[in-house]
Each structure stands twice: as C-alpha cells, then as structure tokens.
Amino acid sequence: MSTVIVTVPATTANLGPGFDCVGAALTLNNHFKFTPTEGEGKITVTGMEAAKVSTDKGNLLYQALERFYQYLGKTPPPVAIDIELGVPLARGLGSSATAIVGGLVGANYLAGSPLKLSDIMELAIAFEGHPDNVVPALLGNCQLCVGEPGNWQICEIPWHKNLIPVVAIPDFELSTEAARSVLPSAVSRRDAIFNVAHLGLLLQGLTTGRGDWLERAMEDKLHQPYRKSLIPGYDSVKAAAINAGAYGMVISGAGPTLLAIVNAESAAAVVLAMTDAWQREGVKVEVRSLTLNTEGAKIEVY
C-alpha cells in the first residue's frame, strides 16, 4: 500500500464569545506520514518541540488511529509514522486536534476509506470532547458547531477577505485542563445574554468585515475574564494591539496564545506592537500574521 501524508492545520477556537462552539483553521500545519510496514511500526517526531511528543502507543495520533480501527472492529495494521511539527504544543492553537484529525484521516486511508467525512468528524468530536477545534481542523475555514453527539449541525461562517488573524505565541505552555479549572460552574443570566448578543455580532462582523462591529463583538463574559489571570501581560498586549489598529484581541482556544483580528493595513503594526508589549513583560514571543486555511485536512499519496 502507498505512503500517505496527512496535513492538518492549526486552529483558533472561541474567538471571544464563541466559547466551545466557534473555531477557525489557520495557515500553520502539522504533517503526519503513514507508511505501511511488514514489521512493528515506529513513531518518529521532528520539529522544535519534538522531544515533548511521545513515540510509543500513548502518542495521541496513534491513539486516534487505534480508536478508528476499534470503531471498525479491526486490529490496526503495522505502520511507520513520521510526525513533522509546525503547530506549537499546549499554546491554544489546536495541536491535539491536529493529532486526532490526522490519526483518523490517516487510518481511514489505510483501511481503504470506509468512512465518510461526516463519520470521521463524529469520531473526532467524540475523541476530543468538543467540536470547536477538530471541526475546522478537518474541514478548514471558520465553523460554528451546534448540537450534541450524533446530531451535530455544522455551519461555515464566511470570513471576510480583509480580516487578518495575528497570533502572538508566548514561550510558555498552558494546558486546557488548567484553563478550564478556573472557570465558574455557573454564570448569571446577564452574562449569558451578553455572550449570546456578542456572538451574533461576531458572526456578522466576520462575514462583513465591519471593524466597528468586531470591536464590540470580541468581548465575552464566560471564559476570558477568568483565564486572563493565567496569562502574564494579557492586558498590556491587548492594549498595544488595539492601539496599533487591531479591532480586538482574544485568547486563542484555552491560551496562552493571543489572537488579534486586524485589517491588512494594520497587520504589520499590530505584529510589532504585540511583540514589543510582551517582551517588555519579560516574555519571549513569536508573533505571526496568518491567513485562514480553507482546505482543512489534506491527503497526499505517494
């Protein structure tokens, strides 16, 4: 059987008020190569954070592959897996979602493609536990996910061509578990209404490119007020981004990466401002101006 390479994009989830239901694919990628082998397969990892990734059967990508074959009621075939990292780990850019999607898509090819894309999506959501990262990682673009297991409604949100996502990736990690641990178990009706209204405005702002709408829409009351305490320099970086021309700034996923949405004319200034602000807080950071990934998970066969 041929070797297959699955390329899966990074994602940014929540986008402020879209907690656990909105995510967008970005132009950062992980690459996963699957090569059928006669003997016992092995996992190799390359990239800046390769030493942090397991190379045994506890590897998340391999766990997703195993989960796929369990779903089919079959035993996984021996396969050599090569992982090339391009998405930073534990930074709020969906690195685990890339592994889950990559493992399922790669397994589906190895098994002769028995499952449809919608079936793979259901498996990915069940494995991850929520849809906002795995769905855009699989499908690309910006996606709104509504529903429950077995009954998901996925709605692609048009992203205006003039809107540029700028990500500020610090050199420290923040686990999803830690970020969820600071959230309250209940919220007030007032805060729930606030988020419903702001999510509606966010979707319209993304679609139309209306900066005045996005300036209001990227605020939320469900997670960012609690999580920002885990991110040193959050307020300084946000002020710098907005002063440089960003429409707004949010925590990407569970953090600590921060995402600003800007127009093309302001992108370079926002990159410099966010870099300088975090460095003045004593945090090393990489700030990048990206675009929306429109392809999702992509397969190349050799």
From TrEMBL:
Q: Which Pfam families match?
A: GHMP_kinases_C, GHMP_kinases_N
Q: Name one GO biological process term.
A: threonine biosynthetic process
Q: Which GO terms describe its molecular function?
A: ATP binding; homoserine kinase activity
Q: What is the lineage of its organism?
A: Bacteria, Bacillati, Cyanobacteriota, Cyanophyceae, Oscillatoriophycideae
| GHMP kinase N-terminal domain sequence ranges | 59-140
Q: Where is the GHMP kinase C-terminal domain?
A: 203-278
Which residues bind ATP per the record? P88, L89, A90, R91, G92, L93, G94, S95, S96, A97, T98
This chain's function reads: Catalyzes the ATP-dependent phosphorylation of L-homoserine to L-homoserine phosphate.
- This chain is encoded by the gene named thrB
Pathway of this protein? Amino-acid biosynthesis; L-threonine biosynthesis; L-threonine from L-aspartate: step 4/5
Q: Recite the UniProt keywords alphabetically.
A: Amino-acid biosynthesis, ATP-binding, Cytoplasm, Kinase, Nucleotide-binding, Threonine biosynthesis, Transferase
Q: What's the protein name? A: Homoserine kinase
State the SUPFAM superfamilies in the record.
GHMP Kinase, C-terminal domain (SSF55060), Ribosomal protein S5 domain 2-like (SSF54211)
Report the EC code(s) recorded for this entry.
2.7.1.39
Question: Taking the first listed entry, what is the main subcellular location of this protein, grouped into a coarse class?
Answer: cytoplasm
Where does this polypeptide localize? Cytoplasm
Asked if the keyword ATP-binding belongs to this entry, the reply reads yes
Catalytic activity, reaction form: L-homoserine + ATP = O-phospho-L-homoserine + ADP + H(+)
Q: One Gene Ontology cellular component annotation?
A: cytoplasm
Q: Which family does it belong to?
A: Belongs to the GHMP kinase family. Homoserine kinase subfamily.
